[in-house]
Design brief:
Shape of chain A: globular
Structural class of chain A: alpha+beta
Number of helices of chain A: 9
Number of helices of chain B: 16
Structural class of chain B: mainly alpha
Number of domains of chain B: 1
Radius of gyration of chain B: 21 Å
Oligomer: heterodimer
Largest sheet of chain A: 7 strands, mixed
Radius of gyration of chain A: 19 Å
Distance between the termini of chain A: 42 Å
Number of strands of chain A: 16
Largest interface: A-B, 29 and 30 residues
Chain lengths: 310, 367
Amino acid sequence: MLIQDYSSEHLTARLRGEGIYLVTGAFTVHLRIDLPHLARELGTMYGAYRIEDPPGICDAHAHIARLGGVRGLLGPRVQAWADGERIFEPVPVVRAYTLLESLLNWAIATSDLAPMLVHSAVLERDGHALLLPAASGSGKSTLCAALVCRGWRLFSDEMAVFDLVSGELLPNPRPVSLKNRSIEVIRAFAPDAHLSPVYHGTPKGDIAYMRAPAQAVARANQSARPGLVIAPTYQAGANTTLAPLEKAQGFRLLTDNAVNYASLLRTGFDIMTDLVERSALYTLTYSDLDDAVERIGRLHAEVVAASESA
Amino acid sequence: MEAARHRLISALLEPHGTLALDLREWDALLLAARERGLMGKLAARLADLGLFARTPHKAQRHLRAALIGVESSQTAVRYELNRVLRALGGLDVPIVLLKGAAYLLADLPPARGRFVGDLDLLVPRERISALERILTASGWAPAELDDYDQTYYRQWTHEIPPLQHPERETPIDIHHTIAPLTSRLHPDAEALLTASRLLADGRLRVLAPADMVLHSTIHLFNDEVGKPLRDLFDLHELLVHFTAETGFWDELLARAHLHGLGRPLYYMLRQVRTAIGTPIPQEVVAAAAAFAPPAPLDHVMSRLFAAHFRPRPGFTAPLPDRIAESALYVRAHWLRMPPGLLARHLAVKSVARIRERLAKAREEANP
């Protein structure tokens, strides 16, 4: 069953009761929500996602509810729990959806889960994955959203997820978070993209989410081998420049952006060396989004052609 | 709730039983194991019996991650110890490993599948400042504490503020005895050192079996502990392991007398039997009963501890369990310091907490 197959009332009731096992590609989160308006927002953004029914083994048990007690008197706010523990500071009710997204990110980033994680947007075309590793705030989500709007398959705008056994990238398509000026940039770049309302006044400024295309969600069980790594930097007024990166530099760059590389010991090292071995590595400086998307597409096509003739 | 307790403990004791679980039951089992810090232990038990590949695919992902996390933590602690020994050079100080580090270096059963977060060392009280001087001169630094916390550690506890190397994450706790100085317990620190056993490397030591069990016991029953069921399972494994040593049980009772730790020993033996089913000789149970508190208190304590060790699947513990937790928290502090000091400590701590809240509220108001 997909979320969109449920009526709004049924979804709200179920989220309030036993909860749903929400499948977002590689991860399944047991989610309970006590706020009807948040249940409706979830329905809008996650309509194409599968609910595991009957439920099996999840990766985290998550719960969002209105804050009670003395702290609730300061104004209507909501609080998130994961695996029985309170996480994050409470947020005003109107920004509950941002808390939901943070909670789902948290469920993935906690070290308890098995895959190797690297801060990177991941997309796929012609069976070869493209990684855009960068720290948050460097504009990788904007570039990722633009590529998605030009037909790339979304894996993640935040986190590259590597299977520990196969070393392949696992999809985890979720709404792409756009901050501040990128919201208008993407609206202009792709007027048809479905964006959530803008949530004002978060610690990171204004945030809006771009819905993941249904086709990316439907194929979320299909992993891909890494092929191309491009570390992007947005620089106002810069010409689009793609420069190859030495393997050793690429290794350094990827480990710098890794979340749990060090604690994976030998396993992490093997996956990382394999990734660097088999990928073409570049840096990208850009200011013109159309041009950057076009150049990335061409480079990726060359890499795919080279790997297929090899 | 009963079913889940049964499931986590019996999965650890008889891992073959997990083969009959459906996915839903696995989900509950993994949640309980994760909440109680026993995921690595469960994974290790399954792996040791060759059952790993027969568990559901999704469960394997969690279990494998837990094993890697455990290995990673143990590697970090071994490495930290290696650095400490290197810094100390030939300094002639007996170094006794405590808790996780002791299980790990002495290769005791609790180490298998167990996360080891820090390096706990016991050294003679008069040598502690020499040790601290050398380590701080070699790059370790005290954890960032305010003045109150610094004073609190030095004057009133049984350890100095934790040291940490700026390049690594492993905290080092250096103790000179195994109970806070202010508590009503006064284990014989010299006897602990004298009876300690040299490890195969010829440098490091661990507490003698009976002392080790008693230390883990007071830590679990008189302190606030993050993972009570995990620590109780440590004790279960230690007891089962040391049973093979001739005279272990007599020694355990004798050392409990010597250190004045009969009451905690009584509580521990009772809980490990009821929660896990550890085999304990009848005559030891009978002898330990002499340390029991008066019947009404015994009844209350037994209820509180039972709630404390119960794995509870779900989001929040039921109210009675939360009340039990609060009661044990207050008790841990009560045992740790005399009433006047306790009042002062809690007052300072709550003022600090209020300040923190105010700062946070201000931050939220003006982002």
